Amino acid sequence: MKQVLLIAWREYKQYVFSRGFLIFLVMLPVSLVAFSAAMGLVERNKPTRIFVVYDETGQYTDDIDREVERRQLLQALSAWDAYLNAYADLTAVERGEIAPPFAPDAVNDKRAEAFIAAGGFDVAQLAVDPYLNASAMPFEVPRVQFQRIISPVPTDGSLAQIETALRPFLLDDERIEMPDGTTVPLFAAILIPADFGADDDASAAQYWSRNLTDSALESVVNSALDKALKRQTIAEFGLSQDTLDRIDAVDAPLLSYRPDRIADEAELGLEDRIETAMPAALTYMLVVIIFGVGNLLLTNTIEERSNKIVEILLSSVTAGQLMAGKLIGIAAVGLTMPAMFLFGGLAGSMALTTDQNFLSLAISSLFSSPLLLIYLFYFFCAYAIFAMIFLAIGAVSNSLQDAQSYMGPVMILVFAPMPFMVMVFQNPNGFVASVLTWIPIYTPYAVMMRAAADPPLWEVFGATILMLAFAIFLMRIMGRIFRNAILQSSPPKARDVWRLARKEKH
Amino acid sequence: MTGSSPSDPVVLDRVTKRYGGFTAVDGLSFRVAQGEIYGFLGPNGAGKTTTLRMLLDIVKPSAGSISILGSSSAIDVRRRIGYLPEERGLYRKMKAIDSIAYFAQLRGLSAGAAKRRASELLEEFGLEKFARSKNEALSKGMAQKVQLLATIAHEPELLILDEPFSGLDPINQQTLETLIADQRRNGRTIIFSTHVMQHAERLCDRFLILAHGQKRFDGTLENAREIYGHRLHVRSAAPAAAFESLPGVVAVRLEKAGGEENLYEVELAENADPQAFLQQVVGAGIAISRFEQAGATLHDIFVSLAGDDASEAIAEAAE
């Protein structure tokens, strides 16, 4: 056993204390933070896109302006909720100290209207200040996304003439001078012909823009014109303006509940959402780690084989001990990564002054449920299955190039169920979930994914027993291949590999 | 086999190893006595490495029995054995001192003792400056020394060295010879395989010559010379035919043609007496100016016993 642990320790040390691993360990959370910060920065610093509207009917410009404004307010409201989730003590919401409409809630027109009526973001900031943690900066309203400007070209011609006159601006050959002296390109032009309307023979409004990938403004305009035409159509039935406004303001209230909770606690909250998403996150981590460490096993077995170290090792330990040492060492490497992130998250959540932010909720949900134990169990099961495959491939390959011919089919096998995992997530007790649970190499992923959905116990136990039996069978077969092939000076041909698996060759 | 004892550290009895239809080692028996240096000679594919792997229980024999340090399996006594395989390697990213200590630990030393021993050995062999260098930064010769030190760091009773001289420059070959001799002086038993006959001749107490998986010879150099046969060097102006007609002569070869006299190698029958041959030469009136017994080298014996493959192996080793 001492030798096995010694081999395991060497394997562990080789990777965990390597510069590359330490850099990765630091870089991963840093890059995640940097990535989200960069995304936020990009979003905040996205230049305001300038557009013009030529409306021959004279009816729709205000509708477009209103829709732009409405979207802007809803976006700011989403940013406000995210701000509170990150920095505020959410128990203050439960206690009612942060009250609607400032408390995080559904983002809709009704709330937006109430928010503005209650004083807007300045008043909201004052209301939540006592409940923010020390690191919180004041809320910053997102920059205006779209701004309509007065036409840079004469508007007394036909739409075709106006469009021709606007082309140099749309193609950025000419720029528009803003009141602060800066010049900006024209992002889009909306041309509404005189006969625009809902009738079948009416002309279409035109959206001109060189940018074909950013369709946000196109969507805003479409929605604005859509609503306007619907209002016109409804008005034709003789309804008053007030009635139309009331119809527009209708927003069906919908709350989600969990049937497995008593009535008072059944309403779905952030904690529940986290709990539901956690197995999927852990499954993703399981896949990434299993293949990360599987590759380590593959490359270091190839190194030992091609560098001829293996013969010296086999004069000191048995092939079984060598295999066990490698498996234990690399498994420990695989567990180090999530352990570090877990402790990092724990430390981070403790460092924050509030105890009800997103990170705290995620950590508490992880520790208060059996998810972590389930993760550990299925980590070892998945590891036992895939590590043995990688180890055997390493033992029959003198180089990574040799290994490629085996890795192709293995990768297809491994990643085949990935598209179905979305279906398992959405319907954790459905047919696809059941089928994947009963396929031993996919059992760890499927059960992990279903963990929060209370799958039938008989199914979990049955599939797990089948998976364990399969893992033992695979370990025996792959172990034989490893022991028989590891000392062969030239790698066996693919067709001979199963011969190595059949019987001990020594 | 002479002077065998039940306490011999290595005993092979009719050991055979088959891979499918191919017999790599065929009914091999030999013993290695305590404290001796035992040479394994044989051309490529003779079964040397397979035999050594069977000794170490890395490969199981198909038939026969092996006793090593009193055990039927090297696994039970591996801490008392040091093994240097023919194809050697080190972990590229590991430091020299850690490599030696790691293998010493695998063979039973404690972490502290292994590190101390590694440090001592590196100093003894002039590698202390490279102790903390990664193996990938070492020259080939230095890396081979590190491998050798990793083999002896745990102070094994039995050293098994497979082609230890291959790839070493002459200076390092000399260092290795000294090390092997030192190990023997310290009471270790050493088995090594080689293609380089000079090393074997200088170092080995006894030899095993293998060809096509079968034993061709097992004994001392003197034993080998006896088997090799009586060969005489004779210088004379007489033609070769004059000697060929004499009783007891098997063959006469012209070794060196001279202006007036030639040097011949005369091979006598196994039971022929060189003195009787000399009397017959004088009796036949053949004038000779030199008469001496030819001393067979290990090279001659090896080529003679192992066949054509042996010449090739020696040529490869020389390269």
TrEMBL record, chain A:
Entry keyword annotation includes Membrane: yes
Annotated transmembrane regions: 21-42, 277-298, 327-352, 372-394, 406-425, 460-479
ABC-2 type transporter transmembrane domain span: 188-475
Record's subcellular location: Membrane
Keyword entries, A-Z: Membrane, Transmembrane, Transmembrane helix
Membrane protein topology class: Multi-pass membrane protein
The protein's name: ABC transporter permease
Annotated organism of origin: Hyphococcus lacteus
Lineage of producing organism: Bacteria, Pseudomonadati, Pseudomonadota, Alphaproteobacteria, Parvularculales
From TrEMBL, chain B:
InterPro entries referenced in this protein's UniProt entry, alphabetically: AAA+_ATPase, ABC_transporter-like_ATP-bd, ABC_transporter-like_CS, ABC_transporter_ATP-binding, DrrA1/2-like_C, P-loop_NTPase
Gene Ontology molecular function: ATP binding
Pfam families for the chain: ABC_tran (PF00005), DrrA1-3_C (PF13732)
UniProt keyword list: ATP-binding, Nodulation, Nucleotide-binding, Transport
Entry-linked SMART domains: AAA
Annotated ABC transporter domain residues: 10-237
Source organism, top-level taxon: Bacteria
Family membership noted in the UniProt record: Belongs to the ABC transporter superfamily.
Name recorded for this polypeptide: ATP-binding cassette domain-containing protein
